[in-house]
Design goal:
Distance between the termini: 145 Å
Number of strands: 6
CATH architecture of the largest domain: Alpha-Beta Complex
Structural class: alpha+beta
Shape: rod-shaped
Order of helices and strands: HHHHHHHHEEEEEE
């Protein structure tokens, strides 16, 4: 009796019974079992991931050794990306600033691998439109971008001496043009004919037909005037007014045979033209040609001498003449 009282007193002093101790022990056992289960599951997950990585790398190596080299690069890169255990996928979310665009090689890596920060490349769906080279084609390596940027001067560029020679030639042409311009504005005493060699410089900014007409007029500009000259044939040693105009128009393909001043009254279309205007009546004919915005008269009347130019810068009265032009000119 005394012993039971002592045990009851002892149990009450500790604050728990036998049942409480059994429950606590059971809880500790359950927690230990949970920890062991979690560790076992984690180990199995890593083993599976490692197995997948090794399988992907093995597949990449097989593809790299296949005849299709174009696919080998992609397969190797995909295999390497898989072998990192999803590192490339994780990199895609953080997207560092130095990661190149998809399909761009990463410095310091081979064609079949990716760096730790690279994103797995996706095959171009329009590759067939880019003329893909066969595996037998081996192009030489490109220079570094810094070297390519330094090659500013193209091969075959002229040397300094060649540039100076071209400048001298250009200046000579400009001087000749200024001299010709001065000749066309300077009138030979005794009439209205232009000076120099009596020819006009053929401008480049006018239709080719007009250029040919000017060239034809220049060819006989200083030939003497003889009534009826140039009518029996375009080939003559003298030309009258209608023979002169007919020759120039024929040089441009606007006339097939010499015409008289009377028949030129019905040549082409009525009214003045944009580039060439012929003024004709029964007894005389002349024409104006637009030379770079300036109208020059081609006429046997008003010349400064027997062998003076038919080109004259002065505008005469057109009263009594019919204006004609070629359609479109």
């Amino acid at each position: 009796m005394a012993t039971q009282q002592t045990e009851g007193v002892s149990g009450r002093r500790l604050g728990f019974s036998r049942y409480s101790l059994a429950g606590a022990l059971l809880g500790v056992v359950l927690v230990a079992l949970g920890v062991v289960l979690v560790l076992a599951l984690g180990s199995n997950h890593h083993a599976v991931a490692g197995s997948r990585g090794r399988t992907a790398l093995t597949h990449a190596a097989e593809v790299a050794n296949s005849p299709n080299r174009a696919a080998a690069g992609v397969g190797a890169r995909q295999g390497a990306a898989a072998g990192t255990g999803g590192l490339a996928h994780r990199t895609l979310h953080r997207t560092p600033a130095h990661v190149p665009a998809s399909g761009t090689a990463v410095a310091g890596t081979s064609a079949g691998t990716l760096s730790a920060d690279a994103v797995a490349e996706t095959r171009d769906p329009e590759e067939a439109k880019s003329f893909p080279a066969p595996a037998t084609v081996h192009h030489s390596l490109a220079n570094k971008p810094s070297q390519a940027a330094e090659e500013v001067v193209a091969p075959g560029a002229p040397s300094n001496s060649e540039v100076r020679a071209e400048l001298q030639q250009m200046h000579a042409v400009e001087r000749a043009a200024r001299k010709q311009e001065a000749a066309t504005t300077s009138i030979v005493p005794g009439g209205d004919s232009i000076g120099g060699n009596g020819q006009l410089a053929i401008p480049q900014g006018v239709p080719e037909v007009v250029q040919r007409v000017i060239a034809g007029a220049n060819a006989i500009t200083d030939f003497p005037y003889v009534f009826g000259g140039g009518h029996a044939s375009f080939v003559s040693n003298s030309y009258d007014c209608s023979g002169s105009v007919s020759y120039a128009l024929a040089a441009g393909g606007l006339l097939g045979a010499p015409e008289t001043s009377g028949t030129l009254e019905s040549w082409g279309a009525p009214g003045p033209g944009k580039w060439i205007t012929v003024y004709a009546n029964a007894g005389h004919v002349y024409m104006y040609v637009n030379i770079g915005g300036r109208w020059m008269r081609y006429d046997t009347v008003g010349r400064s001498g027997e062998f003076a130019s038919r080109w004259q810068p002065d505008i005469r009265s057109n009263a009594g003449f019919v204006a004609r032009h070629w359609p479109g000119l």
